[in-house]
Amino acid sequence: MRREPPQTIGDYTPLFFPAAMLTIFFVVPFGTMIAVSFFQRQQGGFYTPAFVFDNYARFLSAFFGGVLGFSLMMAIAVAICCVVLALPFTYMLTRTARSVQIVWLVALLSVLSLSEVIIGFAWSTLFSRTAGITNILVALGLMGEAKALTPSFAAVLTGMVYQAFPYTVLVLFPALVRLDPTLTEAARTLGASPLKAFFTVVVPALRNTIVATLIMVFIFALGSYLLPQLLGRPQHWTLSVLITDQAIYQSNMPFAAAMAVFLVLVTLGLVALTVLAGRKGEAA
Amino acid sequence: MTSIFRKFYFFLIALFLALPLIVVAGVSVNQKQTLAFPPQGFSTSWYGEIFLNPEWRNALIASVTLAVLSAALAVAIALPLAWFLWRRIAPWANIFQLLGVAPFTLPPVITALGLLTFWATVGFYGQPWTAVVSHAIFFVTLPLVTLSLGFTSIDRSLVEAASTMGADERTVFRTVVLPLILPYIVSGYAFAFVLSLNEYIVAYMTVGFTMETLPIKIFNALRYGYTPTMASVTILFVTTAAVIFGLVARFGDLPKLLGAMSSDGK
């Protein structure tokens, strides 16, 4: 059965339900959100239809500008840490036996599916004074007495890298698993050490993949909203936290929507960059 | 790379991934209601608490119900769409594929806020079924991706043979396409199920004040301090996820589902 263009209305039937669901429950809510971002806020948590830019103007204030800057910086730091850790790991993983790969993939998927709440809870326990990692250091005689390592910037960063690491590996996995093994074999035959072959052959061959992965992990990290609250101080809060805060606790939907629209624009810009990086990769 | 270096690096990564879970597992069997590691005494009573304490039990029931229904709805949206795109030449229909992938690509707070404004506008805010629809839309990407992959792996000549021998469209679908696609339906469902079970922000923004799922319950409990039940729920959830993904790997080709070529080189 070859692929054919639809002939009659009946041929379109399978498309009806998915198209309706995605339009009503994704496109319409998205449109509603954009509309609300221009609405006028009323006292008491209500808003009325209008077309004002106040919400966007407020967003560009020094405070929210600072939060945006911090969110972006945090996401960049997470993306770099993850790719630096995950690239050699994924490369070695794709060169192991399939059964070993499967065990790792199951473990990575399990960690990836963990709720942010659970990751936050697990790391706050690990960083706590009473049940934390410092107790192990004390037991080993490396430290005088146990202490709390949270809240701190390092704690937030660790939690976010933990959350994003499995995602990074799974994004890198298809590209690395399909990498032509003869490339490194050639380098090895010509006398390069494994480390040198990795940095002079594998890394340059994957330049576009690495750029695309950095951007995807960056977007993933930008979505983090509970870890900064659970492991950090208020100055470590990201844009996602503030959006939730404005929507739920301050009942300022128009302002929350304006911030969300801005976040979409940043994300879409980066997705476009990823696609461009991918295109260039194909052309090369 | 040399084997010793690889083993050492694998060990470090495994330690990083497992350490928080090891500590939480230790805390979850602590005898007293204190946060202590290594555990003092041994007790499985905190696991019993999940099922015996009505608050935790209700949260567990809410989470499982939500995951079962929303994953089913996600598959119901993804299957006809993926089938249509495989069967027909209709380039503009790809826009729906793009829409199906979008909610998962954007930061989750955006999808959550969009759905919150929508449910508030149409007046259904807080209804439990809105969480089912919200999760189905949020996670439709997963079955859509596995099913699209599944359809590309179907040999079209098989389908051709069936229709040459007189099978109509419906019979072809039931007797040839469906059995071949079934493993991908199951794995797509499994992915959506596990992620829905653990999802926080969309559930919180849509039904957070009327229905407490387990992640919401854990977060609310964290604000009032620590209870060992959180630790046992954490271990229960990660074990569930590992078992489900383990089953997917056991009965399907997991590396292929994740983008590698299949074991026979196809």
From TrEMBL, chain A:
Belongs to the binding-protein-dependent transport system permease family. CysTW subfamily. Residues 68-274 form the ABC transmembrane type-1 domain. It is a multi-pass membrane protein. Keywords: Cell membrane, Membrane, Transmembrane, Transmembrane helix, Transport. GO terms for cellular component: plasma membrane. The chain crosses the membrane at residues 12-39, 59-90, 102-123, 153-177, 198-227, 255-278. SUPFAM superfamilies: MetI-like. GO terms for biological process: transmembrane transport. This is ABC transporter permease subunit. It comes from the Bacteria. It is found in: Cell membrane.
Automatic annotation (TrEMBL), chain B:
The lineage of its organism: Bacteria, Pseudomonadati, Pseudomonadota, Alphaproteobacteria, Hyphomicrobiales. It is a multi-pass membrane protein. Pfam families: BPD_transp_1. GO terms for cellular component: plasma membrane. It is found in: Cell inner membrane; Cell membrane. Belongs to the binding-protein-dependent transport system permease family. GO terms for biological process: transmembrane transport. This is ABC transporter permease subunit. InterPro entries: MetI-like, MetI-like_sf. It comes from the Bacteria. Its main location: membrane. Residues 60-248 form the ABC transmembrane type-1 domain. The chain crosses the membrane at residues 60-86, 98-120, 132-151, 172-195, 201-219, 231-252.
